[in-house]
Amino acid sequence: MSRTPVVGGNFKCNGTVKFIQEHAEVLKKIENNGVEVFVCPTALHSSLLQSLMAGSHVEVAAQNMYFQKPGAWTGELAGELLVDAGIKTTLIGHSERRRIMGESNEESAKKAKRALELGLKVVFCIGETLAEREANQVDAVNFAQLEALRLITVEADWKNIVVAYEPVWSIGTGVVASPAQAQTVHESLRKWFAEKVSAKVAQEIRIQYGGSVNAKNCAELSSCKDIDGFLVGGASLKPEFLDIVKILGDTKKKM
Ligand code: 13P
Q1: How high is the pLDDT of residue 2?
Q2: Ligand 1 pocket residues where CB is under 6 Å
Q3: Which atom of ligand 1 has the smallest separation from the CA of 91?
Q4: What pathway is it annotated to (predicted)?
Q5: Residue 164 covered by a domain
Q6: What's the pLDDT band for 59 if we cut at 50, 70, 90?
Q7: Which pTM value belongs to this model?
Q8: N or C of the chain: less Cβ packing under 10 Å?
Q9: Which amino acid residue places its CA nearest to atom 1 of ligand 1?
Q10: For residue 1, is it within any domain?
């Protein structure tokens, strides 16, 4: 397996200073077992967690960023500010931003492009709703989300992008995609890359699955050949996040 597995923990809008201090002690136990690991606390807790995690195997990343240069954008975080704070990776286009905050495919793409220009790595989140799945629109929706980014990037940009496939119906619901459902989508995404970008990118790009991943269901998902890791929400706030990293690493080593 040539792709390095990668697990992210998305804390979303959760955490207190006390929780971050305690959870850092848990996260520090994550060993380098061949899996890249990042966590995305709120912007408010980012520098605290960075200092607590210094020297560990876990990178502290951002949940979102704005595409404009620093300026009069109340409540937003320009990419330059992330870079200045030592952040190296940001999520972009999480479904909660797309659906709840009304971020369009074009806006998500623009943010990702700006992040790449600034030298940041991007975890680009895509995924369909239940209604879209039931209407047989899974590929159409995911491809359109990717296409918006493809149109404004070049092939070389994709080496700094991880795709996170997170079906909306599975996020925070406890309804995890079956390994077959997830593998089918990941395989189609790789085919899309082969057709629209290049065979090299299709082979090399890492595609995470996200949506109700936990320590119990991650082994089977890990054994799918096109699943390169996970973007974990709720379980990343618990000690079982360590188990997810370990199970993914152990499973991929055997493949
Ligand atoms: P859950 O793991 O809580 O379903 O959240 C997934 C997610 O949205 C990660 O970005």
Answers
A1: 85
A2: 10, 94, 166, 171-172, 210-213, 231-235
A3: 10
A4: Carbohydrate biosynthesis; gluconeogenesis; Carbohydrate degradation; glycolysis; D-glyceraldehyde 3-phosphate from glycerone phosphate: step 1/1
A5: yes
A6: very high
A7: 0.98
A8: C
A9: 233
A10: no
Nearest CA to 50 out of 41, 60, 40 is that of 60
Q: Does 101 map to a domain?
A: yes
Centroid of chain to Cα 122: 8
Structure tokens at 129: 């709703």
Residue 1 pLDDT more than 80? no
Domain that includes residue 235, residue range = 6-254
**Would you state the structure tokens that stand for residue 54, as one six-digit string?**
């210094």
Please state the rounded mean pLDDT for residues 99-116: 98
Instruction: Round to whole Å and give the CA distance between 238 and 234.
Output: 7
Stretch 143-153: mean pLDDT, rounded? 98
Q: Is 94 marked active-site?
A: yes
- Annotated active-site residue 57? The verdict is no
Total domains, the chain: 1
Give ∠ CA 172-173-178 in degrees, rounded to 5.
105
Per-residue pLDDT reduced to its tens digit, 162-203? 999 999 999 999 999 999 999 999 999 999 999 999 999 999
Q: Please report whether residue 156 resides in a domain.
A: yes
Residue 51 DSSP SS3: helix
